Amino acid sequence: MAPIPAEIHGQRYISLATYRKSGVAVDTPIWFAEIGDKLYFLTNSKLGKCKRIRNNPQVKIAPCTIRGKITGPGSPATARILPTEEFARVRQAIQQKYWLARLPFLWRNTDTSLEITPA
What we know:
The chain is of the alpha+beta class. The protein has a single domain, classed as Electron Transport, Fmn-binding Protein, Chain A (Pnp Oxidase, Chain A). It has helices at about 50-55, 85-95, and strands at about 15-20, 25-30, 35, 40-45, 60-65, 75-80, 110-119. A seven-stranded antiparallel beta sheet has the order 2-1-5-6-7-4-3, with helices on both faces. The longest helix is centred in the C-terminal third of the chain and has 11 residues, at about 85-95. The radius of gyration is 13 Å and the shape is globular. About 30% of the residues are buried.
């Protein structure tokens, strides 16, 4: 298991590239939490990035701005959908990092936590 890349460590946002069945990458800026040597984020299970991760767990992560402009080199990683018991732990870690994440209405459609393991 590789450590979190230096370019990612301590960033506010990362770009998560997931891959369509055709192999085309889809970049999405996300909030994330660092726990140990892994990254965690929350999303809605009905969104495209969840579907793409179910089909292909290989992803690429890169530092980015809030609008998704990539600001550094990308690193390969593997993503996996976590069991529902992990949701509260991941949400708490994200709320500690982002004060805006403490607003309950932001999470009304969020039901899935995911783990990213750098390659």
